[in-house]
Amino acid sequence: MKKATDQDKLAAFQAYDAWVFDLDGTIWKGSTLIPGAKEFIELLRSYQKKIFFVTNNATKSRAANAAKLTSLGIPASPGEVYTSSFAAAAYLRTISFHKKAYVVGEEGLVEELSAAGISCVGGPEHRGKEIDWQDKEPHVEVDPEVGAVVVGLDRFINYYKLQYATQCLLSNDSCMFVACNTDARGHFSSTQEFAGAGTMVAAIIGCSEREPLLLGKPASFMLDHLCATHQIARDKCIVIGDRLDTDILWGIQNGAGTCCVLSGVTSESQLLSSDNKVHPSLYMDSIGDFLSVKGQLPSSCSIM
Amino acid sequence: MKKATDQDKLAAFQAYDAWVFDLDGTIWKGSTLIPGAKEFIELLRSYQKKIFFVTNNATKSRAANAAKLTSLGIPASPGEVYTSSFAAAAYLRTISFHKKAYVVGEEGLVEELSAAGISCVGGPEHRGKEIDWQDKEPHVEVDPEVGAVVVGLDRFINYYKLQYATQCLLSNDSCMFVACNTDARGHFSSTQEFAGAGTMVAAIIGCSEREPLLLGKPASFMLDHLCATHQIARDKCIVIGDRLDTDILWGIQNGAGTCCVLSGVTSESQLLSSDNKVHPSLYMDSIGDFLSVKGQLPSSCSIM
């Protein structure tokens, strides 16, 4: 495997109608755009390519992500954004879920579930809650209407929430356990990685001894939903991302093209290591590298 | 397999010099003694049997457990009690650990580590701590002297502690990850089970992607330590407990006799199910059942 040549890039440009970008490490890092991201998205739009932004981050809503993209110079609509919190909500809607969701997660997850018509318990309203350990019989009373425990990143996790989630799962065999994503770590600053949703999901597996249904990358749900909603064939999609175990694996397992960018968590040596079994169709330093073929593209839209 | 007969009990009484009891579900439930526990321990003591109490619970120190036993009518010394927090401290002492421990756990764990001469960071002092998310570059600064992350049950778990532990493990490959125990759930009341130390351990595995060294049951360390300290052969020990996956497995894997009591979490149907692969040498309803052979024991101590 070697870095994508101009010929590889031109072939990808011709082959794929839908360009599915990861956000953190691919389009931006924290609050800074990756150089060339804006220009490359503009180029794709000028050729009427479909653009999507798909993130496992469950703390912001689709609208909040679209607003951030727009503010950084990449105009985007909420409908072009997929988040793992949207995926959780969309999944529950597809199965006509009509009970309440117990949320271990932040505002963005509650927003997406609420927008899908699902009543939420927990989430930010259980921030700072403590069990009364002075009570002779300590007890967490759970709402019997809860039919799903939905877990995303929660930077305000506490024992009360873990116990509430566990009781929902143990007291009701039919209560679902839905994981927005199982990412070990994510980025809130450029100086260190932070514990991700995989932390909260693992904690609840640890106490409930139940296994979750995963909806974020690399599970198929978001690509299934995107392709069905926008009537796009899988092999006309290319996934561009910085993570092998989520982005690239997601594309490969679901029949899409894949492009790994080295602007995030994956280094070239990790990618090329014999230990790595996840091989993208293409790789390059960053999405800005696609701009090298700008002058070689046809001036018309005949390639579409 | 069938319930122990009087003949089985007499044979066990003769065969074993050291009687190693689990506490919760075996000697007591919450703050109530299991009927017959006091009388059976007295009987064993009258025959100069060695008695030990071994619990995975890491929230109370040895002294606190001995005091509870004594207050319930079973006089016991701290040296007869083994806890998984003591095990963590004893293990670190055996390897001449001289750095600091970052504690995800409660007062009892800090007490045991401190008693072993180990400086602790975290634990109760990090209760209620929050990361400053308003900071442009949120950051958890860790003490570079930390050489081990030691994890037990922590009912005051928060994101700050999880992030601190993760940073210790990620920023220093030689930092150890020590789990007092990995019990999914424990008892703080008779009305519901509560998330156990396995919750915190799983969370830190989830974010650090590191595997811990387990010291509590069913790992061998506590039985190794007990036998070495008191010069007892493994095959002269019998483990009496209510949990198949910790107590009984621990005894079997380490060459001790085993007796499962049905006074805690294991039911007779679970024990006898074809799904269960953990078979104790003996089983009975509760340790009080041993008293049925009281009148058949020799009056002298010749059996010793």
Low-confidence residue ranges of chain A = none
Span between termini of chain A: 28 Å
- Biggest β-sheet: strands ordered side by side in the sheet of chain A: 5-4-1-13-14-15
**Assembly form of the protein:** homodimer
Major sheet of chain A:
6 strands, parallel
What features would you describe in this structure?
- Chains A, B: Keywords: Hydrolase, Magnesium, Metal-binding.
- The structure is a homodimer of 304-residue chains.
- Chain A has 2 domains: 6-56 and 219-296, Rossmann fold, CATH 3.40.50; 86-214, Rossmann fold.
- Chain A has 10 helices and 15 strands.
- Chain A has helices at 6-15, 37-46, 62-71, 84-94, 107-115, 159-171, 197-208, 221-230, 244-253, 268-272; strands spanning 18-21, 28-29, 32-33, 50-55, 81-83, 100-104, 120-122, 146-151, 176-179, 185-187, 193-195, 213-214, 237-241, 257-261, 282-284.
- In chain A, the strands form 4 sheets. In chain A, strands 5-4-1-13-14-15 form a 6-stranded parallel β-sheet, with helices on both faces.
- In chain A, helix 3 (62-71) links the parallel strand 4 (50-55) and strand 5 (81-83).
- The longest helix of chain A has 13 residues, at 159-171.
- The first copy, chain A, starts with 5 loop residues before the first helix and ends in a 20-residue tail after the last strand.
